[in-house]
Amino acid sequence: MLSDAKTRSIIIQCALVGVAAAFAALLVSTTFANLRARGIPIGFDFLTMPSRIVISEAILTYKSRDPYYWAIATGLANTVFISAVVIVFSSVLGLVVGITRLSSNPLAAGTCRVWVEVARNSPPIVLLIFLYSLWWKVLPPVGEAFNPLPGVYASMRGLVVPAISMDVATPGLLVIALALALAAAGWAAARRGWLPPLAAPAILAVGVAGLWIADAKFSVDWPIFTGSNFKGGKELTPELSTILIGLTIYTTGFVAEIVRGGVLSVGRGQWDAGHSLGLPRGKILRLIIIPQMLRVIVPPLNSQYINVVKNSTLAIAVGYPDFLAVMNTIISKSSHSIEGVFIILGVYLALNLSLSSAANWYNRRIAIVER
Amino acid sequence: MKALSLSLQTAPMPGQIRVGALWRYAKLLFGTPLNAALTLLFGTMIVVTVPPMLRWLVIDGVLFDPDPNACRVAAGACWSFIYAKSGQLLFGIYPFDERWRPALVCLLILALLGWSVRPASWTPRLAALWVAALVLIFWLMAGGFGLIEVPTSSWGGLPVTLILTVVAIGVAFPVGILLALARRSTMPAIRIGTVVLIESVRGLPLLSILFVASIMMPLFLPEALLPDKFVRALVALTIFAAAYLAEVIRGGLQAIPNGQYEAAAALGLPFWRTQYLVILPQAIRVAIPALANTIIVMIKNTSLVLVVGLFDLISSGKAALADPDWPSPAAETFLFIGAIFFALSFSFARFADFLERRGLTAH
C-alpha cells in the first residue's frame, strides 16, 4: 500500500496537516492559558473605549480621549501619508536619476551612481538616524531658515512647505474633475492604443476648467516668514521631514536602478527598426520604447512600492508615530496583544495586497497581447 | 613604411596623450548642449556641497586628540570620539577584559566569508567547516568550558550583527529550498500551506515580525520552550529570510526545463536525489544574482534588531553617545556605523557582479 504514490501522498499530507494542527492547538491553548493566568480579557470591544494614549503627530485630528479605533486610524493615516509621499517623490526622482546614470556625461552619471550605491548599500534605519542627527547640526534656527526652493523653508523646527487649501465643497468637485479627466484619458488611450502626447496637458486643462467653472475656492497657501514664525503653509516636524526625505533618498536609489534596467532592456535594434520605418524620435520613444520598457519595470517597481509601505515602519527609529508604533503603544497600554497582532497583520496584508493587485491590473493592461 | 606609421601612432609625444584625453573629456562634458548643461548643473552642485563637507570631515575635524574638549572647540567632525570609543562601538557592553573574544569572532567570520566566496571552495566540506566554526563562535561568545560565561544580553556591536546575518542566512537557505520545493509540490495541502506562509511573511514588514517574536512569543509559548531575546530575534530574521530566499530559489527552479526532470526519471533517480544531483545545482546557479540581492537586503535588515532591544551596532553607538564626558557627536558615529554596513554590503554586491561576469550564472 505504501508503494502506491497516491496513497503515500495522502498519508504524507494528512500527517503534515495533523502536525500543523497540533502545533496551532498548542499555541492557542498556551496563549489562552497565559492570558487567563494574567487576567487579560480577549475581544475587540476595547476598540470603542477611550484610548488615553498620546500620538505626538497626526495627519488626522486626534485627541487622547478619542477611542482606540480612532487612534488606530490615525496611525494608519500617518503610514499611508508617508508611503504616498515617498512613492510619488521617489518615482519622479528615480526616473531622473536612472536616466542620468546612462548619460554620456561622466560628471552627471558619476554623481547619480554615488547616490544609487549609497542608497542600495546602507540600511535605511541607519540613513534615517544619521539624517535625524544632522537636523540640528546643519540647519539654522527658525530666524535664518534655509530656503532651497521657492516656498520651502528648512530650519531646526522642521520643514515648511506650501499647503493646498480647499473650500469645503471643493473635494467633491475635484473628484468630478478627476473622473472627467480620467475618462477622457481612458477614451484617448483606447482609441490610440497609447496615451497621446497631449493627454497630460489635456487632462490638466479639463481638471482646471472644471474647477474654474465651479468657482472653487482652491488656493495654494504659501508660507510667509513673519520675523519669528511662519504664517500659512504646512509645517512638518523634523521627525516627519526626516522620514520623508530619508525614505525618498533610499527608495530613489532602487527606482533609479529599475528604470536604468528598463531602458537598457530595450535593444538598440528597436530604435533602428523605428528609424527605418521613418518614425521621428519622439514617436519611437512613445510607441516603441516606452511600452516595452514599462513591461519590464512595472513588476519590480510594484515590489519597490510595497517595500516603501514596509519601510515606513522605520519611522519608529526617529519617534514618529506610524501605524506600527501606534499599535505597539496600544498593545502595551491595553494589553490586548492577540487582537493587536491580528490587526497589524491584517492591515499590512490588506495594504500590500491592494497595492500589488492595482499593479497587476496595470501590468495586465500593458502586457504583450499574444494571439 | 607601414611599420613606421604604426610606431608613430603608438608612440605619440608625451604632451599629445594628455591633450587627447583632455579633449575626450571636454567632449564628453561639453560636447552637446545637454551635456554642457548637465556639467554646469552637477558642477555647481559639487562645488557648493563638497568643499564645506570636506572641511567639516577632514580639515576642521579632530582626528586622534584623546581630549574631549578638543571636539568642543573644533568646528569640524569629532573623529577622536570614534577612535576613543571604538571598543565600545564595535563590541557594545561585552565585558572589557574579554573583548578579545568578540574581536576574534569578527575576524573568524570575516575570514571565513572571504574564504567561502571563492567558487573553488563550494563543496559539501564548506558546510561542515561553517558548522564547526559556528560552534567555536558560540563557545567564544557565550563562554563556558574554561572561558568566563557571558549571557547573550551582554553581547553587542559588530559580532551581533555578523552572527545574526550569517546564522539567519545560513539556516534560512536550506529552509528556503524546502519551502520552494513544497510550493511546487503536487500535494495540494503542502502547496497551499506553503503559499499562505510565504506570502504572509512577504506581505509583512520585518519590524512587525520582530515585534511579534520578541513581545508576543512569551504569550504564545509555554515558559519552558521560550528562547531568550537573542534567539527570538534570530528566529524572526530566519523566517523572514527563508520566505524571500524561497521565492528566489523558486524562480531558479522555474528556469529548469522539463527535460531535466524527465532525464533524471529515465535514469531511475528518486525524488530527493533528482533534486539534489540534477535540479538544485542548476536552479541555484541561475538564481545567484537574485540570491546575492536578497542576501544584501538581509545584511541591511539585521540593523532592525535594535528596535526590539538587541545590542547591535546602532544600539552600541547610541550607548557610546550617552557618555557625558564627550560632546555626543551623533552624526559622526552613525556615519561610521553606516560605513561598516556599506563596506559589508558593497563588497558583497561587487562579489555578486564578479560571479555574474564569470558566467557562473549561465547554465
Comma- or semicolon-separated keywords:
heterodimer, A: 371 residues, alpha+beta, 8 strands, globular, B: mainly alpha, MetI-like fold, disordered N terminus
**CATH level-four homologous superfamily name of the largest domain in chain B:** MetI-like
Mean pLDDT value of chain A: 80
Per DSSP, what share of the residues of chain A sits in E-state strands of 2 or more residues? 5-15%
Please state the CA-atom Rg of chain B, rounded to the nearest Å: 27 Å
Please render the helix and strand layout as text:
The complex is a heterodimer of chains A (about 375) and B (about 375).
Chain A: H1 5-37, H2 68-100, H3 106-121, H4 124-138, E1 146-149, E2 152-155, E3 158-161, E4 163-166, H5 170-192, H6 199-213, E5 218-221, E6 224-225, E7 230-231, E8 234-236, H7 238-265, H8 268-276, H9 281-311, H10 323-334, H11 337-366
Antiparallel strand pairs in A: 1-2, 2-3, 3-8, 4-5, 6-7
Helix pairs in contact in A: 2-7, 2-10, 3-7, 4-7, 5-6, 7-9, 8-9, 9-11, 10-11
Chain B: H1 2-10, H2 14-30, H3 33-59, H4 68-73, H5 79-84, H6 86-91, H7 100-116, H8 124-142, H9 158-183, H10 188-203, H11 206-220, H12 229-254, H13 258-266, H14 271-286, H15 288-301, H16 313-321, H17 330-357
Helix pairs in contact in B: 7-8, 7-9, 9-10, 9-12, 10-12, 11-12, 12-14, 12-15, 15-17, 16-17
Report on this structure:
Chain A is of the alpha+beta class and 371 residues long. Chain A folds into two domains: 5-39; 68-162 and 222-366, MetI-like (MetI-like fold, Orthogonal Bundle). Chain A contains eleven helices and eight strands. In chain A, strands 1-2-3-8 form a four-stranded antiparallel β-sheet. In chain A, strands 4-5 form a two-stranded antiparallel sheet. Chain A is globular and about 75 Å long. The radius of gyration of chain B is 27 Å and the shape is globular. By secondary structure, chain B is mainly α. The longest helix of chain B has 28 residues, at 330-357. Chain B has two domains: 13-58, no CATH class; 81-357, MetI-like fold (Orthogonal Bundle). The interface between A and B is large, with 55 and 54 residues.
